[in-house]
UniProtKB/TrEMBL annotation:
It is found in: Cytoplasm. InterPro entries: Integrase-like_N, TACO1_YebC-like_2nd/3rd_dom, TACO1_YebC_N, Transcrip_reg_TACO1-like, Transcrip_reg_TACO1-like_dom3, YebC-like. GO terms for biological process: regulation of DNA-templated transcription. Residues 5-76 form the TACO1/YebC-like N-terminal domain. Keywords: Cytoplasm, DNA-binding, Transcription, Transcription regulation. Residues 83-236 form the TACO1/YebC-like second and third domain. Belongs to the TACO1 family. This is Probable transcriptional regulatory protein A3D35_00040. GO terms for cellular component: cytoplasm. GO terms for molecular function: DNA binding. Pfam families: TACO1_YebC_N, Transcrip_reg.
Length: 238
């Protein structure tokens, strides 16, 4: 299987300025709201929600923000209705992209993301034009602590399909239906999970030179600035 090419929009930067922190809190809050809508507001019964609450606390997200996001998902507060969006497209040098997000206004989100793609030598594609070049996989991220071989063995024994290292991070790929099982097995062994999501893994990746990578990075960062964007996947190698 090819490597893990995923631009994380929510970065663990402890020294982020207030504006950046506000954007991070907003994005995490939206994911929490959707998780509650899909699986209920009890973190004991909703493993995804529990993971998100733990992550929110790591970012020092205020308790009242977390509670408000949960109440929104449970329908206890009025206001905006959130929905998932998934956009396919192409970027600089013809790279393929899948942009996933959560929005309270789908038409606005599509227009804004299309504008960003056009500005940075990309374009939006029709439904199905790109996704066939990716596989839907569970992706668990773990920070390595000099225990790579132990984690790899544990992950494979738990049912993981592939384990890939990038820097000090280990990405564990699973079948979508096995994601929670593998995650729980790791947690039962006191492995700290950085993130656990259903993501998109490119079937074939492309090599870019440094100038091309720089152009793509500018696009990713511009997309990241959009409040509705949560995850960005591409077929860039490395």
């Amino acid at each position: 299987m090819s490597g893990h090419s995923h631009f994380k929009t929510v970065k663990a930067t402890k020294d982020a300025n207030d504006a950046k922190k506000g954007k991070i809190f907003s994005k995490i809050g939206r994911v929490i709201t959707i998780a509650v809508k899909e699986g209920g507001k009890d973190p004991i019964m909703n493993a995804k929600l529990k993971t998100l609450i733990d992550k929110a606390k790591e970012f020092n997200m205020p308790k009242e923000n977390i509670e408000r996001a949960i109440k929104k998902g449970a329908g206890e507060l009025g206001g905006e209705t959130l929905e998932n969006i998934s956009i396919e497209g192409f970027g600089p040098s013809g790279i393929t992209l899948i942009v996933e997000g959560i929005t309270d206004n789908k038409n606005r989100a599509l227009t804004e993301i299309k504008t960003i793609l056009n500005k940075y030598q990309g374009k939006m594609a029709g439904e199905g034009a790109v996704k066939w070049m990716f596989d839907r996989k569970g992706v668990i991220t773990i920070e390595l602590q000099n225990n790579k071989e132990e984690l790899e063995l544990l992950a494979i024994e738990s049912g993981a399909e592939d384990v890939i290292q990038e820097g000090n991070l280990l990405y564990i790929h699973t079948n979508p239906e096995d994601l929670e099982k593998v995650k729980k097995t790791l947690e039962d062994k006191n492995v700290k999970i950085e993130s656990s999501i259903l993501g998109w893994i490119a079937k074939e990746e492309v090599d870019l030179d440094e100038k091309e990578k720089e152009s793509c990075q500018k696009l990713f960062e511009a997309l990241d600035e959009n409040d509705d964007v949560q995850e960005i996947y591409s077929n860039i190698k490395g």
